[in-house]
Amino acid sequence: MLDIKLIREKPDFVRKNLERRQNKEILKWFDDLIKTDREWRTSLKKVEDLRKRRNEITAEIANLKRQSKPVTKQMKEVKEIPDQIKKTETKTEKLKEKINWYLMRLPNMLHNTVPFGKDDTENKVIKKWGKIPKFDFRVRNHQDIAENLGLIDIKRAAKIAGHGFFYLKGDLALLDQAITRFALDHIIKKGYTFIYPPHMMKRNAYEGVTDLNDFENVMYKIENDNLYLIATAEHPVGAMLMNEVQEKKDMPLKFVGFSTNFRREVGAHGKYTRGLFRMHQFNKVEQFIFCHPDDSWKLHEELQKNAEELYQKLELPYRVVNVCTGDIGIIAAKKYDIEMWMADGKYREIGSNSNCTDYQARRLNIKFREKEGRVPIGFVHTLNNTALATSRTMVALLEVHQQKDGTVKIPSALRPYMNGKKFIGK
User: Fold this and answer.
1) CA 195 to chain CA centroid, nearest Å
2) 376 in a structural domain
3) Is 111 exposed, middle or buried (CB count within 10 Å of its CB: 0-12, 13-18, 19+)?
4) Which domain holds residue 292?
């Protein structure tokens, strides 16, 4: 959430930043927040004034009684004050709830390097890597390749689970595990601590890492329980330090999480949904950092470098885009997407890298201090990056490394994890 102190002190500065998102509803919320906050402070002062007056009049009554003077007027006033305090406190609490509602929904402040644009068609390409393969045979998509090799069973998965689920078989199931171990080993060597998080989260923790009103429609809720199946390891790892204070000397805290993730978004209108690209259930390796505010932009680039190294070792052509103001979402201050080249000649998102500054930390109440025993002096910054989503990485591997005879070449970086195999075949 945004810093209410910054909003009070520099409302025009904050509003101008929010205007870059081109969302009239957000601006309406912001203007109403300013008004509501002003009313809340007035109401809060009224409560304080009433309490002060109650103390003053109580002392006045005692003094008049000592002088044997009448106190009828004062007694009448002092009896009315508790009801006035209660009514004003109720109003104050409602105003505070309204303020919190707005703060939990207003988006993060955008970094000045985020390009202006209305949607993903205006994201700015800042880098391309790898050679686009030139095939001298009819190119197949990953689903056709996997089915031809007998490595995927869609019909039986639909029979027992419905659309958007798959049985991965043989070398394709092994490839999923190989990608995971490859990515984990690469990131762990860089000093990141491996985390295997819970696959369910309570609502209050989930609301700390993302806006559930925006995200809940793609999540699975456990009926009759206050629990949600996680949509990414980012969320439980990010919430891990909720309501804690970190020592400055211990930061940055670098984690790499692995989880199976669950999302409803299969079949989303206007999105590419073929085969393994968009699934209800998939595995992902996620990088996550808690750091001092001074270090987050440097670490944002470190996460990007880590992720790109993985795709380069897998010999997969990709491009990096700086996500524009109309496509970035509410949590990140800046976001890069890595987009993979697919056999139909198009680039599609395979992972993202976000610096969320102190936005998540304020929602989760994760602070830092200079050293133990000192008062916390601020909120940490959080960053997250999709190191590898195994399903989309398999899409890229099958399509980019397909051979004329229908087999698929295994990149050398993965062969130790595939029992030394060089090709996937029947």
Assistant:
1) 17
2) yes
3) middle
4) 120-424
Distance CA 273, CA 22 (A): 28
323 and 227 inside one domain: yes
- Residue 124 and residue 98 share a domain: no
Per DSSP, helices labelled H in 149-225 are 154-161, 170-188, 203-209, 212-215
Same domain, 309 and 356: yes
Residue 323 Cα distances to 24, 165, 232, 238, 242, angstroms: 20, 29, 20, 22, 28
In a domain, 279, yes or no: yes
Model confidence, pTM = 0.91
DSSP state of 159: H
> Hey, how many other C-beta atoms are within 10 angstroms of the C-beta on 42?
11
- Please write the tens of the pLDDT for every residue from 301-360: 999 999 999 999 999 999 999 999 999 999 999 999 999 999 999 999 999 999 999 999
Q: Is the pLDDT of residue 269 over 70?
A: no
Residue 108 forms part of a structural domain? no
At 270 the pLDDT is 62
The token pair at 280 is 């209800």
Q: Which two tokens stand for residue 130?
A: 């790898």
Name the pairing type of β-strands 347-355 and 367-369: unpaired
Q: Are residues 319 and 407 in the same domain?
A: yes
Name which of 340, 358, 319, 320 is nearest 394 in CA terms: 340
Find out whether 318 and 307 touch, Cβ atoms under 8 Å.
Answer: no
Query: ∠ CA(49), CA(88), CA(48), 5° rounding?
Result: 20
Average pLDDT over residues 138-146: 94
Shared domain for 330 and 201, answered yes or no, is yes
Helix (H) or strand (E) holding 124: strand 124-129
Pairwise CA distance, residues 314 & 150, whole Å: 23
At residue 105, the pLDDT reads 93
The pair of three-digit structure tokens given for residue 300, joined into one six-digit string: 């944002």
Residues in CB range of 85: below 8 A, 6 or more apart: 47, 50, 51, 54
The DSSP code for 107 is P
In three-state secondary structure terms, 72 is: helix
Q: How many domains does the chain contain in total?
A: 2
pLDDT digit string, tens, across residues 356-387: 999 999 999 999 998 887 888 899 999 999 99
Question: For 296-300, what is the mean pLDDT?
Answer: 98
Asked if residues 354 and 322 have their Cβ atoms less than 8 Å apart, the reply is no
Do residues 420 and 409 touch, judged by C-beta distance below 8 A? no
Per the prediction, the chain carries an average pLDDT of: 94
